[in-house]
Amino acid sequence: MGVTGLGDIAERVRRYTVLVQPGGRGSGSGVIWNSDGTIITNAHVTRGSRAEVTLWDGREFTAEVSARDSRRDLAALRISAANLSAAAVADSSRVRPGEVAIAVGNPLGFLGAMTMGVVHGLAPLRGMGGRKWVQADVRLAPGNSGGPLADVHGRVIGINTMVAGRVALAIPSNEVLQFLLGETGGRWLGVSVRSVRLPRPETRAGLAVLEIKPGSPAAQASLLPGDILLGTEEVAFSSPQHLADVLQNSSSGIVRLKFLRGDYTKERRVTVSLAAPGRRPIAA
User: Fold this and answer.
1) 239 catalytic, yes or no?
2) Of 27, 29, 73, 242, which is the active-site residue?
């Protein structure tokens, strides 16, 4: 299975893969999701409120668990660091059977170990409910949990979580984005979204709001399912990652969003308070 530039790709993935040690016995892996110190791992890797994180270059940090979703088996950690080598994230809905997949993690104490295989599919697994998994024949071992499953470009397509038989199961990257949009660090919007093409010729893409959590900042801002988020004054939204970046990088905890509603002919704006969802936002 030949992949052009595999050494460079593996090095890129290793740089955004971290060792996560929750204390006591055992350890796992994690993915640097943003350069400002957000790390994604499995919830079962970090059951407490803190964990020790070691970067690829040997630097060590004490991380705070800023969000956890046991149902999804995801957790977000925060470390006090900046300008980190963050992961590029792929759209997992575009993953197809037969694509090459690369897993990097820290199995059985081997730091930055890499294994490679082929994607079997993106689908539910019989006997494990209706949620979808990225299924691949990469070899995982204890310590790989929370680490990245990447494509041949080094982009994350999933978070390695468990093994079922001989198949590795990873949480799709799009599900991680939904987790971040709803949960991370107190700066949350409380929406489920997906990328769409817009009917207006002058705008190419946006994010369709599929669901809004009751009591969330999005609900307080009177956003509705069916609205299409266009972006902010500085950033246009063409993927959920763009929205996640805006939320996490908002130092003030306030964002002003542009969106469409109804017949999509009038561009609207709304100011949303992310850190204080009980405060009534101002819509325009």
Assistant:
1) no
2) 73
